[in-house]
């Protein structure tokens, strides 16, 4: 039903001639989305799963987690968009008439992501993920300048090719499942797959799983397929960067997790996909360390940090121990919140200072004190510093590495994370202190602090995890590991 | 299963493979596009023949839709972009055409090699599956070795045909909903790429991707 809300909202945007209508329509759509989505999540978590419309739509704890992340971040980012895009229009970045197209594509993007997490069918998930690429291409290239178009082009070409490999993987899966479950749509239903997983042909399935993970992995941004990611994230309007980084990557990861959860039951054994995930994860973490240290552009810095965090998630899920998967599920939520907040606050900063070059941003505390405060919170959260929640989730992932007998991997992961922390600290401190350039107009209102809500949630979750959330996360672990 | 004899099937496969090779060898984008269109017509006909044989009306309808959308709408769209951008040359920088053909030959062998383990399951479709994988590899080759944006799109379209064929021979048709979704996605994708290349023209005055080197590090 919320998919319907998103589609109707998207079409409605095109007919909203006036700004006030646009804002009104967006707000109504957000309220409806939150209500229907929240209701679905509650229902799903209390019953363990929830089917709608004879099983065309189906949610379990994992879908509910993703649904929650999508809705929370969408509300935050779209509300921020109002002021931000207004300012961009003022600065003549694009004509006012194109504002409605911005919201149109945002809501189409929302609809495709909601479809991905609401369907129990791996084929439809593929259609949805491909849809997210198409919906965001024109958002990435929204400013229509040379760099934006270059980024959009790289993005669409790389992701479409990557995703088409995932289609090939899905076909190979279908070829191996169809003799067992019949030539129908339900053969790709992930509720059915665990029942026949043990009998799947290993050769066919191995090839299929490889294609699917590499294909979706390109969309998640695993190194070495991450080339599109920093370009797209740095050139898109900042609210879009926030959505891309905080939800889109998670949605692609969700597709991999669906494959992973039944691949564990096949003849290939539980470790086959897990090992691939861990290799991608570790490679991403290792490579990004260098990029983060040497970065000059603040939005690219955040983009590379997203790749790094996707790597951490992949290690956590790939390990497959209860504790690590619990940590990774929590980290998925916390990274989403943190990164959305950082992109939003950095987007504002870039708008005020007029540059993305970190070397030219100085003395934030003097000119924009509240923005500076939020950036400190963001810095601590993104690097996994206690008492933020990200510390807790990263520790439970990393301790999994040691417990399962990968002390060397564990050691290097901690080393890389420490270096990344140093890199972030260096970049941020340079921007926060120093002599501000005269171009900045000093002063901002206290209401800026309202933008820090997601980070405060992350901080809160670091000190106290409510019983209901813990139960939900345990349900997610059960879904992924198959009732262990 | 498909309703045409092995000989005829092999003939169709030959057309598909050769049209792929000619695309790799083409010096002009327009020729490559025409050969891709021909290839797509044959792929759709294969689907329609199967639907006719199995008396599956929905498969026939889907085949016809595919014929109209992929062999009709996409070439028209791309031809318009080509005309506006005055693009003719495919932009062979790294690999000259003759050498590309040699590479493509090698890739065909690899395609046979890769599909070897799958053959035990579907002995009747040995060539079909291998040709499908060969087309996917040609598409990748085109995307990497050519410098004109539209040729990269042709690479994607070639990969798309290859994947479609692979699905056809592996599974005798995916669930219709997924097939429809996939076809719709590629159509929308081409429209969006068309819009994007128009914006690219406004900014760069050409569709050569060599200009796009500003984003690094």
From TrEMBL, chain A:
Keywords: Cell membrane, Membrane, Oxidoreductase, Transmembrane, Transmembrane helix. The chain crosses the membrane at residues 21-41, 61-80, 101-118, 124-143, 155-183, 203-228, 240-260, 272-294, 301-319, 325-346, 367-388, 408-429, 449-469. Pfam families: Proton_antipo_M, Proton_antipo_N. Coiled coil: none annotated. It is found in: Cell membrane; Membrane. GO terms for molecular function: NADH dehydrogenase (ubiquinone) activity; oxidoreductase activity. Residues 57-94 form the NADH-Ubiquinone oxidoreductase (complex I) chain 5 N-terminal domain. InterPro entries: ComplexI-like_HydComp (IPR052175), NADH_UbQ_OxRdtase (IPR003918), ND/Mrp_TM (IPR001750), Proton_antipo_N (IPR001516). GO terms for biological process: ATP synthesis coupled electron transport. One of its GO terms (cellular component) is plasma membrane. It is a multi-pass membrane protein. Residues 121-414 form the NADH:quinone oxidoreductase/Mrp antiporter transmembrane domain. Belongs to the CPA3 antiporters (TC 2.A.63) subunit A family. This is Hydrogenase-4 component F. It comes from Desulfosporosinus lacus DSM 15449.
UniProtKB/TrEMBL annotation, chain B:
One of its GO terms (cellular component) is plasma membrane. The chain crosses the membrane at residues 12-28, 35-53, 59-82, 94-112, 124-142, 149-170, 176-196. It comes from the Bacteria. PANTHER family: HYDROGENASE-4 COMPONENT E. The keyword Transmembrane applies. Keywords: Cell membrane, Membrane, Transmembrane, Transmembrane helix. The keyword Glycosyltransferase does not apply. This is Hydrogenase-4 component E. InterPro entries: HyfE-like (IPR038730). Its main location: membrane. It is found in: Cell membrane. It is a multi-pass membrane protein. It comes from Desulfosporosinus lacus DSM 15449.
